Amino acid sequence: MMEHYAIHSAHSVMPTRWTSFRRHVPSRQRCAPAMSQHKKPSEAGYQKIVAHAASLETSLKLHYFGFPGRAEASRLCLTVGNVPYEEVIYTQGSWPEHKGQMPFGQVPVLEMEDGKMLAESLAIERYVAKLAGLYPEDPLQAGLADQAAFLSDIWEVFAHTIYMPLAQKISVRRELLVTKIAPKLQNLSKLLETSGEYVAGDKLSYGDVVVFVNLCSLSSGILPGVPTDLLKDYPVLKVYRNRIACIPAIKEFYEKRGEGFRAAFKPDAA
Ligand SMILES: N[C@@H](CCC(=O)N[C@@H](CS)C(=O)NCC(=O)O)C(=O)O
């Protein structure tokens, strides 16, 4: 039995914004030119997914593991924008069999309806943000959204600690919290003090979604050595995180999937 499985988004009806996007952009132009054409996932896995997808009007598939990680911002953009999608979730056991089918041997990967695959989480985030109407059209607003997203990135800081023995991991991460993460959080706080409710203009953009995901991930307990109450020292970030968590589509997403590390993505307890 295959160890990966598909989860469907709650939307079985194609929403207006998505319909109009598809109407105006021919299918082949919806994929970036640099996107590579790779084999689909193995026959058995693929058939299983298609069987689940038969009732959907789209077949955008987001390939990743079950945890939030590098796919969560894309999941949220698709959800907030009402863009139908399904997920292909790999486990530690099933992943090695599929690694070779991904463009760069890693996930997340977004598979288009014609089988083309887009890799690299940042590229996927921007692509789905555009589909979702969350990527600002104004170049400066887009730059501001990118600025916040890049500033809040925590994964690069901790990437080299992932395979360390636990004790070493904890001690190195505590050091990184002081040397690398605290300055990032202070800068983010300053940015939010001046930018208003959102990081780019007066409405939610993908920049907010990425900052939200990074703040929640950081304090979710997924990184041993990083305390879950980290944001208590950053009141501006705490209020901001909670405001984004209270956006109805996001709140609803975590009401359905708020187990484990995702508990930290919910609104603050009243
Ligand atoms: N730069 C890539 C990094 C992707 C990455 O590191 N993916 C990890 C999971 S977070 C992965 O696929 N690990 C399994 C492997 O490398 O075999 C991105 O941002 O998408």
UniProtKB/TrEMBL annotation:
Entry's Gene3D superfamilies?
A: 1.20.1050.10, Glutaredoxin
Give the GST C-terminal domain ranges.
138-270
Q: Which GO terms describe its biological process?
A: glutathione metabolic process
Q: Which InterPro entries match?
A: Glutathione-S-Trfase_C-like (IPR010987), Glutathione-S-Trfase_C_sf (IPR036282), Glutathione_S-Trfase (IPR040079), Glutathione_S-Trfase_N (IPR004045), GST_C (IPR004046), GST_superfamily (IPR050213), Thioredoxin-like_sf (IPR036249)
In terms of PROSITE patterns, this protein maps to: GST_CTER (PS50405), GST_NTER (PS50404)
Annotated GST N-terminal domain ranges read 58-136
The lineage's top-level taxon is Eukaryota
State the Gene Ontology terms under molecular function: glutathione transferase activity
The protein depicted here goes by the name Glutathione S-transferase
